[in-house]
Amino acid sequence: MAITAELWQANLIALVSAYLAIKVLRPIAVYFNLVDIPAGRKQHVGHIPLIGGLSIYVGVLVAILSVYPIHDKLFYLLASSSLILVAGLVDDIKQLGVWVRILIQAIACVIMIKGAGIYIESLGDLFGTGVIHLGQWGIPFTVISVIGLVNAVNMSDGIDGLTGSLALVAILGVFVFESISGNYRLFDFLLIMVAALIPYLLTNLSIISDRKIFLGDAGSMFIGFILSWVLIELSQGDGSGTRQAIQPINVLWCVALPVIDTVVVIIKRLRAGRSPFHPDRSHIHHMLENLGLNTRQSLAVLIMIALVLMAIGALAQLLWPQVSAGLFVLVTAAYMYWSKQRDWSAVGEVAHEHT
Known about the structure:
Elements: H1 5-31, E1 35-36, E2 48-49, H2 52-67, H3 72-94, H4 98-116, E3 122-124, E4 132-133, H5 138-155, H6 162-181, H7 187-204, H8 216-236, H9 248-254, H10 256-271, H11 284-290, H12 295-319, H13 324-343
Antiparallel strand pairs: 1-2, 3-4
């Protein structure tokens, strides 16, 4: 795993392009009303441009087109993720219905499956009894899984910096699990994603500018979609296992926090007789706020939790891989129990979220 001059160039292009995109897109967003307005459950101050996702997209796209040749898999990834981004932008402006968003996400998944030939065919050896193959059932399983992760990432976008930070933790998790297997793949692409995320995070957290921007549905859906297909590609390899960089179960540990939080939130809402997509104050960041933590403190705690979960998965992979799946279920059940004890009643409350 070497950082070449080509990779340095691509990272610099991604960083600068994403930063300049924020500067250029800010007045355009205001003109086209691509802004988040304080109302109801949104308690921020002022009209905040929803251009974080666009800036990340521009950084990734410009860097790749400037430095790397476009092969088939990359072409279909860029095409399908562009569809996701556009759908998110329309949703940010006009509020698409939930099922319209899901339909578009499913179409983007089909583009990847049919065009790039990537889907979840194997779940790996989850219980030490042999590799579980899904065959053609892997195609609908892949569509459901990708839609699930895209919406888990989208639902995690509740406080400043959280979704972008969790994306960085997921990418770090990929590098950790790749170091365990000794098989480094998509290293360049993931570092470009990191470089493109940095200007957004620094602006969103008001570190380099007091003029805040938000990620928007376009950004959270784009990040979730990209992470989904990167993790699928790395966990499936070429069918022989020779190009498999991480075990399928370790995909969950890379994105453990948004996945576990979303699963528990959905269960809460269904038990309360509500839609899984109905906003409330049952997410983990709401519970931390209820404990008295401010936004920055909540962000720091959640990043630490995500890192600890990823570390648990890495230790399981090193010491006893067969218990990893059961351990993930156990952690999810433990969080559900804690959540029920702390704030189960919050399902009935309307969320007052940052974006």
